[in-house]
Amino acid sequence: MTFATSSCNAPSCTPSCPTAKPPLSLTARLHLHVSAWRQRRQLAKLDARALDDIGVTRAEADAEARRGFWSAPDHWTR
Fold first, then answer.
1. Using CA atoms, how far apart are residues 50 and 21, in angstroms rounded to an integer?
2. Could you give the CA distance from residue 22 to residue 19 in angstroms, rounded to a whole number?
3. What residues contact 73, with CB distance under 8 A and at least 6 apart?
4. How confident is the model at residue 2 (pLDDT cuts 50, 70, 90)?
5. If DSSP codes are grouped into helix, strand and coil, which group holds residue 76?
């Protein structure tokens, strides 16, 4: 069975599943949180033209910037 034909689905993967990742170390998690914090600070500083270029409204950017540093995107930890 190849990865493409595997019946494994990511949320319920077992350690033997090819998509399972090892748990993140404390240092790795801290790095993720700091990265999210920095990116959100930069997003909050973008002007209207830059936000338009990336397809984000000011309201969306402000909402994302207000999120806590601990709230890293789900795909970073999967």
1. 35
2. 10
3. 36
4. very low
5. helix
Residue type, 1: M
Q: DSSP secondary structure string, 16-65?
A: TSTT--PPPPHHHHHHHHHHHHHHHHHHHH--HHHHHHHT--HHHHHHHH
> Is 70 strand, coil or helix?
coil
pLDDT digits (tens, 9 = 90+) for 34-51: 888 899 999 999 999 999
Backbone angles phi, psi at 24, to 5 degrees: -80, 145
> Which two tokens mark 12?
């319920």
5: pLDDT confidence band, cut at 50, 70 and 90?
very low
Interaxial angle between packed helices 58-66 and 26-45, expressed in degrees from 0 to 180 and rounded to the nearest 10: 150
- The type of residue at 16 is S
Q: Which amino acid is at 11?
A: P
